[in-house]
Design a protein that fits this description.
With 227 residues, the protein is mainly alpha-helical. The chain has 2 domains: 107 residues, no CATH class; 89 residues, no CATH class. Helices cover 45% and strands 10% of the residues. It contains 6 helices and 3 strands; from the N terminus they run E-H-E-H-E-H-H-H-H. A 3-stranded antiparallel beta sheet has the order 2-1-3. The N and C termini lie far apart (104 Å). About 15% of the residues have low confidence.
């Protein structure tokens, strides 16, 4: 007989993470309003998925930890503490309502949730939709953009000859690197900031181009004036 397991949220965030950010991440996973995530971080352990294989439990555990919640896998035969019992109405919805309540995570999303805020967690994370793409701000402002987005590899743009290659790399990969290296409130916040970088980089480019053109044309005009 195959062993079955429960996934238990311990009722608290991973040390060092902001609880509001974790609630937002959990809300994205469970497809529920953030205020309903209060009970998952109330300090009491709760079973969020039960009677599943260890492989399924491990996938869910990984997703919940990535969202910032402390959790564990408990073998089904283990006698669970009182707050963990799914049938207790004061803790979680009754058994008949389990399939419909927001504590049941949709497994397709738990395996790979592109909507959760995993920014600032370094290399190897899944990049959500809406983050990837060309960045004019990173390409044109290169090392300045790199400092503002904590993407220190962009400082290679200061090195002669290497700079142009680094600028192109920043244009192609800069948005992904910025998401990995810096914490953002949400994808929308990230997109708005990057749009401002692109806007001001183009403005600076236009002003610089006009200035260079003026410095070339004005002396020619002056030289051609009859004395």
């Amino acid at each position: 007989m195959t062993d079955l397991y429960n996934v238990v949220i311990k009722g608290k965030c991973i040390a060092g993470l902001d609880s509001e950010d974790v609630k937002q991440n959990l809300a994205a996973i469970f497809k529920a309003p953030p205020e309903k995530m209060e009970r998952l971080l109330s300090g009491n352990p709760l079973v969020v998925k039960k009677n599943i294989s260890h492989e399924q439990a491990d996938r869910i555990l990984h997703s919940l930890r990535k969202a910032g919640a402390e959790c564990k896998i408990v073998k089904q035969e283990t006698i669970l503490p009182e707050p963990l019992v799914m049938e207790k109405k004061e803790t979680v919805a009754p058994e008949s309502d389990v399939d419909n309540n927001f504590y049941k995570p949709p497994e397709s999303n738990l395996v790979k949730s592109s909507s959760s805020n995993n920014s600032g967690q370094g290399k190897g994370i899944d990049i959500p939709d809406g983050v990837k793409g060309w960045s004019w701000g990173a390409f044109l402002l290169n090392w300045i953009w790199a400092i503002g987005n904590k993407t220190w590899i962009g400082l290679f743009a200061l090195i002669p000859y290497v700079g142009i290659i680094m600028s192109i790399a920043l244009g192609i990969k800069g948005r992904e690197w910025a998401w990995q290296n810096k914490h953002w409130e949400s994808i929308e916040h990230f997109q708005n900031v990057q749009k401002r970088w692109s806007f001001w980089s183009v403005i600076i480019l236009v002003i610089s181009t006009v200035g260079i053109a003026a410095s070339i044309i004005i002396p020619i005009i002056i030289d051609q004036r009859p004395y």
